């Protein structure tokens, strides 16, 4: 095995082990995607995703989505899609001292993005700008008195929409004669619904692995310095599978 590949694999394993040892706030994200080429430059995909929080102790959410992508030029790609998210919200105490039980929250997400790409030597640099709109549906949730535990009138979780601009800068190393493709990225989430405030920053390191022309894997470690109400805050370890035909 190439020494560089061995070092990258060892580094990834050490990183995952260190994260698990140092923090209880660890999420596991897994996904599977099927992508079909419709005609040259245009393809469609479907994807399923499952996430946990606190390692494997609690389910965070699952999601299913579909999307299309079109390569405008060799250096510019556009894509759009829809994702249905079903996230689990843990129970919490309200400001008035009442307890709202845990519940599952349905969300609808749509996105539209442009990705520019530039190659230098064996490194691919890309910048993706993505507009994202997420709508949380309204629902009623059981509520209990914080002192004696008696049931009270249900708490209303109001419907809410959120507009976000996601800017991701990524670099990928195309190693000669290797099935591994290590990458690193930084992604900024700016809330368009709240005076363009910076909501979240994602730092990611990982590697893709090409099994053959149709099948590939992806492994990554991610740190988020802030979380949405349907995502883990902190450390994330992920794995994905992709099938193209």
UniProtKB/TrEMBL annotation:
It comes from the Bacteria. Residues 1-21 form the signal peptide. The keyword Transport does not apply. Keywords: Signal. The keyword Signal applies. InterPro entries: DUF2490 (IPR019619). This is DUF2490 domain-containing protein.
């Amino acid at each position: 095995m190439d020494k560089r590949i061995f070092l990258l694999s060892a580094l990834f394993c050490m990183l995952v082990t260190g994260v698990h040892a140092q923090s209880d706030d660890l999420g596991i994200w897994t996904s599977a995607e099927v992508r079909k080429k419709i005609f040259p430059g245009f393809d469609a995909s479907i994807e399923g995703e499952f996430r946990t929080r606190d390692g494997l102790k609690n389910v965070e959410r699952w999601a299913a989505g579909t999307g299309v992508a079109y390569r405008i030029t060799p250096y510019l790609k556009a894509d759009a899609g829809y994702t249905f998210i079903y996230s689990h919200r843990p129970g919490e105490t309200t400001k008035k001292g009442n307890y709202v039980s845990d519940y599952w929250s349905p969300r609808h997400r749509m996105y539209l993005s442009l990705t520019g790409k530039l190659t230098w030597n064996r490194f691919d640099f890309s910048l993706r700008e993505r507009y994202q709109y997420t709508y949380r549906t309204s629902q009623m949730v059981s509520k209990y008195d914080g002192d004696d535990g008696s049931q009270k009138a249900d708490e209303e979780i109001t419907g809410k929409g959120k507009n976000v601009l996601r800017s991701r800068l990524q670099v990928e190393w195309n190693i000669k004669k290797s099935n591994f493709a290590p990458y690193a990225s930084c992604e900024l989430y700016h809330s368009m619904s709240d005076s363009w405030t910076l909501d979240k920053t994602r730092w990611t390191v990982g590697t893709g692995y090409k099994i053959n022309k149709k099948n590939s894997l992806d492994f990554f470690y991610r740190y988020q310095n802030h979380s949405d109400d349907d995502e883990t805050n902190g450390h994330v370890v992920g794995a994905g599978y992709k099938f193209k035909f």
